[in-house]
Amino acid sequence: MAKIYYYSIYADKIQEYVRLKHKLGYQFKKQEYHLKQLDRFASLRGETSVGFTKAFSDDWEIKKNHETERNRYIRVSILLHFSSYLRDIGYESYLPKLPAYKRSTYMPYIFSKIQIEALYKAADELRAGRNTSMNTCIMAIPAILRILASTGIRIGEVINIKISDIIHEDQCLKICDVKNGKERLIPISKNLLNVIESYKKFRNLLPEKNIQSEYLFIKLDGRRCTANGIRRWFSKSVQMAKIRESNPGHTPRVHDLRHSFAVNSLASMVADGIDLYVSLPILSNYMGHQNIQATEYYVRLTKNMFPDLSDSLDSTCIDIFPKFKNYE
């Protein structure tokens, strides 16, 4: 990515803010783009002192032609967070209200444990057709689906796993977070480690020239598996397992395995009496969330999927997730 330069009165402060975010492990690429626009906006207005005014904020909040409500929301949130940073380092700066916008009402498909087992069975029974080329990842699908469902990692993370990322002595996998660029170690069960080792035995039966890749999951021709290839075989497995749509047109997606892992893990911990103050940070770190607020989404899903646990969830979440406060 090309280096971004800032020229307004806020240039030094923006650079300090971006460096801070990078040190905290954020990639921050999209945010830097919006900060560049904010810097340009401040330059055009001829701002001469650090600290945003309400007038500046009101002008920045004006919806652009053909701009979506979501993009406007992101722009204002960038100003809000940067302005909050300025206040933290001693400047008077106005904090705008976040504009309302219609959020997606999409509900992910949550697989039951029975459905997950049926999906595994279907993946094990996948067979390549007579005309199937070497450009297929069918051999890796049973192991990939088990990893996705058992760990909740993202599809982009599973295809990036390298053979060297398997740490046998600690029984864990090193995962490179595709969203935030941070590495994390996740513990896995002995059974899942055995699944990986079984796959590697079949992998090593491929021609020598095809197994030189550093990546764990490869196609028959030796190239790394792709997300699209995994999605196709996942859809085939769902059909074979006769897993029905929860709503018309609501077909289960690969990413729903991640949602299912989070919801089922949270439900199990609550049912076992594990305090959410303990379990939520663990789940948040395991899944690679930047903060615990990102995990709140799964608390809501769990309440919808397991209404019997609603009271237990409510009693803790009152304190963990306080209502958002707008600042004038």
From TrEMBL:
Q: Report the domain of life of the source organism.
A: Bacteria
Molecular function (GO) terms listed? Answer: DNA binding
Q: InterPro entries of this UniProt entry?
A: DNA_brk_join_enz, Integrase-like_cat_sf, Integrase_catalytic, Tyrosine_recombinase_XerCD
Domain spans labelled Tyr recombinase = 106-311
Q: Which GO terms describe its biological process?
A: DNA integration; DNA recombination
Keywords from the named record: DNA recombination, DNA-binding
Recorded family membership: Belongs to the 'phage' integrase family.
List the protein's name: Integrase
According to its UniProt entry, this protein's organism is Flavobacterium microcysteis
